[in-house]
Write a structure and sequence with these properties.
With 422 residues, this protein is an all-alpha fold. It contains 21 helices and no strands. The protein is 79% helix and 0% strand.
């Protein structure tokens, strides 16, 4: 660049200490970065740490990112009450970076261990309220909003929808008091709230929220977040009964997912397969199976293949291949049971129950019900879900199970399943 060098006047100001900070950042730093590969790499690392720590100050991002691992090591093995006490009493934990670490760990814990996700989000809320004058008060309000939103999301995954709603109200109150104008934070809160509205079956609101999220990410040019929001929207449309709308959205939106997003593209095609099956378009769904299997192969996540086998079973049932369907459902049921995924095992068991009911296989139905009761009694499940399983067993034993009752029980288990949300 011809004008990339510093002018005589700029150099003189720099050497005498008279150059404003903005001028240093906008004129001097780019000049050095352009000519030094090592500095370019250092700068990229600073940007990565800023993204990870989530703070506007490069200095805060670098210093606090260096501390968080050590801080977490002090807490990791402690029981939750001891963690809470330590965070409350030790000012060393009262940092922006540590709060961000807790939020990230809460999100990661989500579906694998929702109780841990709630505990981590609670710790993050505690830290966010201990942050002092070293941080901009409006940014602190934004961070508290995120912490409450993550707390609400973790509670939603756990099935505690009422307390999740309360957490999101607190998040919105924090955002209302902040004057930062940070749309990215507001959108993140809206995105998590959309999942809560989905879990609450408030689909009109969920659709409105996901459209707001989509609009922001499209304007920001964030292809990954656009793809995730489109998947969310398709799921909402499917739940409202607009299967054709969901199918159309998934087909057309595939073009927006680049080759750099193999995971998202795989889930687009998998969701399309599911919507086609629900719409009774089983031949089209079956044609899509090899493509989805290949896409999942590249992701190397074993649970994906269990769910795909479930989808195969549903397609086989739709095409009248009841034996193949029953075998598929049994395989999937065994996989979910071995993984301790009671709700998923229950849902596929109800699919199997419909087949047995259709074929008049009363003894197999009774055995299936006993297995399901044993599984649910051995797990920490919601009382309503356990009651539903007892109702299923009683109906099987008394030989009065109906398709309507299976549909009712299936809907109930889906609502109570941890992680339920778009």
């Amino acid at each position: 660049m011809e004008d990339s060098h510093l002018s005589l006047e700029t150099m003189a100001k720099l050497l005498s200490g008279g150059l404003e900070h903005d001028e240093v950042v906008n004129r001097v730093v780019p000049h050095f970065l352009e000519r030094c590969p090592v500095c370019q790499e250092t700068y990229r690392e600073i940007l990565r740490l800023q993204e990870e720590v989530g703070h506007w100050s490069e200095e805060v991002a670098v210093l606090e990112s260096m501390q968080v691992s050590e801080l977490w090591a002090k807490l990791a093995e402690l029981p939750f009450e001891a963690k809470l006490r330590q965070v409350d009493e030790d000012e060393g934990f009262h940092t922006w970076g540590f709060c961000q670490l807790l939020l990230r760990k809460s999100l990661e814990a989500g579906f694998e261990n929702p109780e841990t996700a709630v505990d981590l989000a609670n710790l993050a809320v505690k830290v966010a309220f201990h942050l002092g004058d070293a941080y901009d008060p409006n940014w602190v309000l934004d961070l508290r909003a995120r912490a409450f939103a993550y707390q609400g999301n973790a509670r939603r995954v756990l099935g505690e929808l009422r307390s999740a709603e309360d957490a999101f109200r607190k998040a919105e109150r924090c955002l209302a008091r902040s004057t930062s104008g940070n749309e990215k934070i507001e959108t993140e809160v809206l995105n998590l709230k959309c999942s809560l509205r989905y879990a609450q079956r408030r689909f009109d609101e969920a659709l409105r929220l996901v459209n707001q999220v989509l609009s922001f990410h499209r304007e920001a040019g964030d292809a990954h977040s656009v793809g995730k929001a489109l998947l969310q929207k398709a799921q909402i449309l499917s739940e409202t009964g607009d299967l054709e709308g969901a199918i159309d959205l998934l087909r057309k939106s595939s073009a927006e997912i680049t080759e750099r997003e193999p995971s998202l593209f795989a889930y687009f095609r998998y969701n399309l397969l599911g919507c086609l099956t629900l719409a009774g378009r089983h031949e089209e769904a079956e044609q899509l199976l090899p493509e989805v299997r290949d896409l999942f192969q590249a992701l190397d996540q074993p649970l994906n293949f269990v769910r795909l086998r479930w989808a195969e079973g549903n397609i086989a049932r739709g095409l009248g291949r009841l034996g193949d369907a029953a075998n598929g459902f049994r395989e999937v049921q065994n996989e979910f049971t071995s993984r301790g995924m009671a709700y998923d095992a229950g849902l596929v068991s109800l699919d199997l129950a419909l087949l047995y009911l259709q074929e008049g296989r009363t003894s197999e139905l009774k055995q299936l019900a006993r297995e399901l009761v044993t599984l649910f009694e051995s797990r920490d499940v919601h009382r309503e879900a356990l009651s539903a399983v007892y109702l299923f067993q009683r109906a099987c034993e008394e030989e009065r199970l109906t398709v309507d009752l299976v549909s009712y029980l299936s809907e109930l288990l889906r609502r109570r399943r941890p992680g339920n949300g778009a």
